[in-house]
Amino acid sequence: MRVFSSALWVRYLISLMVLLVFTSVVIPWQYGITYPKPNGPKFDNHIHLQYQEFIVNNHANLVLLGDSVVVTSVDESQLARLTGQNTLNLGIPGSASAEWYLMLKNIIAKSPRKPHYVVVVFRDTILTAPSYRVNGKYFTMVDEVAKADDTLVVQKSFVQQMNPVEKLADAYLPLYGSRLNLRESIDNYIRYSLSGWLGCDINCNDNASLAVFQDMNLDANLLVEAIATAESYLYTPNQLNFAGQLDNSYLPDMVQIARDNNIQLILVRTKHLDDPSYATESAALKDYIVALKDYAQKNDVVVLDFAHDDRLTSDLFSDTHHLTPTGEGIFTGMLAEALKPVLKNP
Amino acid sequence: MSFTSLPFFAFCAVVLILYWIVQRKEWQNIVLLAASLVFYGWIQPWYAILLGLSTTLDYFLARGMLRFRDRTRVLLYVSLFLNIGVLAFFKYFNFFNADLAARLGQLGLNGDIFLVSIVLPAGLSFYTLKKLGYILDVSRGTLKPVENFVDFAVFVAFFPQIISGPIDRAQKLMPQISSARVWKSDYFSSAWQLLLMGLFKKIVIADTVKSIVDRIFSLQAPSKLLVAISALGFTLQILADFSAYTDISRGVARLFGIETSENFHTPYLAMTPSEFWNRWHITLSSFLRDYIFFPLRRALIRKRSLPAWLVNAIPPLVTMFVSGIWHGAGWTYLVWGLYYGFLIVAYQQVPGGSAGIQGDMRPVGSKLACALWVGKLKNFLAWLLMFSLVVFGWLIFRAPSIEWLVKALFVFPWISTSQDFIVALFILSMLLAYSAPLLLKFGMDRYLSESSWWFAIYFALITIIIIVYINSSTPDFIYFQF
User: Fold this and answer.
1) CA A140 to CA A48: how far, in whole Å?
2) Together in a domain, B179 and B213
3) To the nearest whole angstrom, how far is the Cα of A181 from the nearest Cα of chain B?
4) B75-106: per-residue pLDDT in tens?
5) Is residue B299 situated within a structural domain?
6) B422, B448: one domain
7) B192 at A interface, C-beta within 8 A
8) What is the ipTM of this complex?
9) Of A298, B226, B238, B375, which has the fewest CB atoms closer than 10 Å, so is most exposed?
10) Eight-class DSSP state of A218
């Protein structure tokens, strides 16, 4: 086994110190950061206000929030026709509870014309998983609806997940605190350089990636596997502990915002084929849902549970989570029927 | 507990402190055994129970071989049956289970009612081979059975090795485990660079390259250009990933005063398949060579009726077939193993055998500078051919299915759209960027003295890059669209 001399260890430490000092000067200057840096990422003040324009222009009285499941499961015009409510589907593929909370807080509650009903379409434990889908590319999506003063999101989705060492490094080590920016710069340099020299700019490069890797090109089975792997986070013992997760989550904040703004919050639990029936569901998840419904009832939140609805047969799904166009029509009808007793006349 | 996670290093720190505090060898081994069982049981408590039971059984079977010499063969068969049986059950049950369930489904029966899914305990393939090697050596009389149960259990369960090797022999580890260990600064001197390189290869190279390679292999019908470039990407990914685990494992073991085996020795510089396997996953290769290849070859040579070509062909084919199924339960692994078997047989047919192909310009050695340019060209082509065959081998290994592989080779277009070319360029630039630090290290190892400042600067730089990449992975995978 190769043994390096202790002199090399000393030289390594000297080199490392020099590099750390250098980066500690250059990085704060480059990114305009002061140290110690507050833990967690920093959002910019820019938010996508076109969502508010949609609400105002459509006179939306019922707004749907959720991820790609709501996009593929609910036909807003059909729902509007069946319920008699102006409906707007604001589902965003890849979004999760942090983004839904921010949509409610920064977009819907601040809208000049507030809807009476906000329907959050969710599955299983996603509502109480604040750090689900907030890192990497998801961060950009969250940032689109977050303001610089959204410290609650920084706290619940990021800082809460850090261990003490990470918090220390994030605050006092510029290299670590700015690693997301640095990583992005490195990735972009590698990604765009070679094709850039050949005349293909960033847009050309991104469009090529989007075209090659679009969903329809992916192997269906592998897509299902990838979904299952990512979703497995929602079924860890911590996530299945409703009481333990509630205060860490955005659910109490969403309930409060809805209450303060006279908005009726409606939670709609969707079906997926990993747990298509009550029998296949784990005992922990059953307990979680009972606790969620109990909490909702105490806080005047309506819960509509379609997780084991036999009318949604497996042939109506395009994969484990998403419905086919036929399934979308059937589910929209079912949702309208369930919503009718809850909705008042517009 | 992942090897690159903070809990793992915190765990190691606690165990190391306890280990060096207790000083006496017996207590050190108890600390190591307890730590190994905690580490292994952390994944699933029943894994540790299975490990404990099988270790106890093999300990007594080996002891029994010493005591009842006339029953050695029976005891060996019991051990082989149990070890291989457990491995086969856990590793291949789901493979046949799925097949059986599908067949039952065709008959209108719900296979899931009859069959349950069995989870393969992590590291089972590795520690089973360790125990098998030990039992086989004891039965042959080339190794004395270990007297102390704790020592034997530490040998089997040694936590830096249990998940992904190296598959060290008892002959290498047992003398170290059984002797007194006193802290030396050399342990740290040889460990820190292994740990750094391991973290760098895993966090920076393997995980990054994996994200894009996985994407291509998730496509239903990628063009041949993308398949080729992603096979190249997987070639880098698997070396970085696997050798990273080995480096971290060796580094941690070294901190406990235990020297474990090197598992990778510039495998992509091999010029023949046999040489590749002498450089790739070395501890597995030597296990297969000593316990399958040589005994089988000896047995075939003794059967004088067999033609020479069969005597030469059967051992590599069988050995690589076993290697294939050891790597995983799936047709792709099986074909990959056989592919290497056939390659070895084919290379045997080249005039002059392996030496003829390697010629005078082997990548390691002082003859490099002296070789004539003709020899250099010949050897460069020989290397290029072997490297291409290795890349193709990884394509078989990584392909989602045999059907996909056949289509990739014969049905998918060379280039579907011009966008394929742009994506291929992006992946190529990624591969160049992420393989550069490894090539640089290779050059430094060859041409610089160990006390050179350049090593210090190199290790400092990779530390900086590790800090940037740690916990910053961009999960830019297919799930993004969901």
Assistant:
1) 12
2) no
3) 9
4) 999 999 999 998 888 887 766 666 665 565 55
5) no
6) yes
7) yes
8) 0.83
9) A298
10) B
A208 and B423 within 8 Å at the Cβ level: the answer is yes
B164 shares its domain with B206: no
Same-domain status, A59 and A142: yes
Give the best residue of B119, B422, B464 to mutate against chain A (max A CB count within 10 A): B422
- Give the per-residue pLDDT at B96: 66
- Write the single-letter amino acid at A113: R
Shortest CB distance from A175 goes to which of B6, B221, B467?
Answer: B467
Confidence class for position B306, pLDDT limits 50, 70, 90: confident
The domain total for chain A is: 2
Check B425 against A195: CB less than 8 A apart: yes
Same domain flag for A123 and A203: no
Residue B359: which pLDDT band, with cuts at 50, 70 and 90?
Answer: very low
Question: Which of these, B260, B259, B316, B261, lies nearest to B288 by C-alpha position?
Answer: B316
Residue B232, classed as helix, strand or coil, is helix
Residue in A213, A217, A219 nearest the CB of B400: A219
Distance, C-alpha A1 to centroid of its chain: 48
- Please give the tally of structural domains in chain B: 2
Do A264 and A141 lie in one domain? The reply is yes
Distance of CA B418 to the CA centre of its chain: 37
Nearest C-alpha neighbor of B271 from the set B353, B214, B335: B353
User: By C-alpha distance, which of A77, A70, A80 is closest to A117?
Assistant: A80
pLDDT score recorded for residue B249: 95
- DSSP 3-state of B390: helix
> Which chain B residues touch A67 with a CB distance below 8 Å?
482
**Domain for residue A281, yes or no?**
yes
- Cβ–Cβ below 8 Å for B219 and A226: no
Which domain, by its residues, includes B227? Answer: 188-285+344-481
- On whether any CB of chain A is under 8 Å from the CB of B448, the answer is no
Question: Which residues in chain A are closer than 8 Å to B426, comparing Cβ atoms?
Answer: 191-192, 194-195, 205, 208-209
